[in-house]
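go over my protein:
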Amino acid sequence: MTKQHRLCFVGPMVGRNPGYVTTQGEILADCFASVGYPTISVSASPNRYARLPDIIMTLLRKRSEVDIQCLQVYGGPSFIVEDIASWIGRQLGQRLVMVLRGGGMPEFMARYSRWSCRVLRRADVIVAPSSFLARAVAPFGFNAHIVPNVLDLSLYPYRHRHKVRARLFWMRSFHPAYNPEMAVRVLAHVRKHAKDATLVIAGQDKGKQATVQALARKLKVDAAVCFPGYLNTVSKIREGNSADIFLNTNRVDNTPVGVMEACAMGLPVVATNVGGIPDLLKHGETALLVPDNDDEAMAAAVTRLLQDSELAGRLSANGRKLAEGFSWEQVHPQWEELFSEVMARSATAYKDPD
């Protein structure tokens, strides 16, 4: 692929704002810009209602500066944005690469199959960061190329864990889909055997933090729980380096970057076995997997790590090896090959089916 291919990454780029989680779309945009590709990314507006007009105006204003539109497809309410952006891209003659995001896409496609298929048919190529999402679109006749998410390993210093302590770390938004209450319940179970167990539970408040804090008080573990809020990169590394075990309690998931960050830092991971997690992590090798919302099983897995230094060391080392497969050096050639394939195709007019 030559560097003349001009890229426009479309989706929520909210991590451009202080206090917001960086998304994969903006990470990819920045990675390509860093190696010389003319790159546009939109929209950085934290207001979801302001993003659509920003995206529309940018696509129209910059139409002569884009060869490939890389559209981040989440489903849910944002699918209206994705529908409009992809239609505009097609009318402007842009090549269209749709990148599936979010663990809720399979349910969304099943519920709105006709709408989903109409939009996805516009794509020149569909990309999924995991086999989980690739399988989700296969029954509808779509073949998704699997290209992993990107992780800048230079940001995550590795510390090998062998003999671990009950210093637990949870990091995601306080949202029902991520089940933060489960982490507090796990701590309460673990403290029955490890009285010094602590938990750092960090992330943006999406309406659940007060409930989680109340639960910590109810279970009488509030003195052992720290709520630092959203963590920037420096704070994330500080908390991750101080912890010994990472908890992933999500009820819906795809390929969570937070889990890969934990693996990169050498934290043994205990995760719920939901969505794309079993495609990402192998039980007993790169993590310990437990049933959804089963805090007793997760607490038992934590206790097992406290007692089995060989297991903890294996998960720590293997987790880092897994994270290395998400480095830009590994992922960049896969994107280049895909873009070359897309640009080699003859441009054809597209019309939505009736």
Q: What stands out?
A: Residues 7-150+327-344 form a domain with the Rossmann fold fold (CATH 3.40.50.2000). The chain is about 40% helix and 15% strand.
